[in-house]
Amino acid sequence: MKSKAYLILFFVLVSLNFYAQTKMLTGNKHLIILNIPKNWIQVQTDEIPFLIKPYEKEVSDNTYMYVYGLDYGSSPDLNLWIQGNNDGLKDQIPEIKINEFDINFENFKKDNFLTGRYRAVKYIYPDFKEEVLLVIETQTTIVTAVLSAKDNDEFIKYLNSFKELVNSVKINKANVTFK
Fold first, then answer.
1. In degrees, to the nearest 5, what angle opens at C-alpha 138 toward C-alphas 18 and 106?
2. Core-most of 19, 40, 127, 163, by most CB within 10 Å?
């Protein structure tokens, strides 16, 4: 009877993971587990290991989401990282508009790996493309989550999908070695 219960539990968990499209992203010092929002699919790209797009016809190349982890040898500083990113963008695109973006998440509380610090920045490009960049600080890694949309209408349309994606993110310390 006990083995039957374990077997049923196993199939339920497999089914839920299949439905939710759970993904695992690894780096040398981090492990990120997340769920792809419904009506989004992962696409292959050489630039970003985890990139997803809406599963719809006629989706702009400027409309996507991604999550990425950047490991560091020492403790990274979220504010310095954002300042460097913003300065680089301003140098490349002087007309870009950069503002803080007020958004809250409960899943990044301080623990033995997360520092509890995160910030979101919104970018509006001269071609009306809009992005929100969420930067999450850990002891060894900066994790970024991005929603990019071709314009404000699409940004608003997909913002709930971004929240769904980010609310599913779990970040853990790891010691991954690749062979």
1. 60
2. 40
Strand order in the sheet with 30-35: 22-26, 30-35, 170-173
Q: Which residues pair with 69 in a beta bridge?
A: 143
Our CA angle for 96, 102, 106, nearest 5°, is 135
Q: How far is Cα 74 from Cα 72, in angstroms, rounded to an integer?
A: 5
The β-bridge partners of 172 are 31
pLDDT tens string 117-130: 999 999 999 999 99
d(CA 25, CA 169): 10
Q: Tell me the C-alpha distance between 120 and 134, whole Å.
A: 4
Which secondary-structure segment (H or E) carries 40?
strand 40-43
- For 15, 150, 161, the CA distances from 65, given in Å and listed in that order, are 24, 12, 9
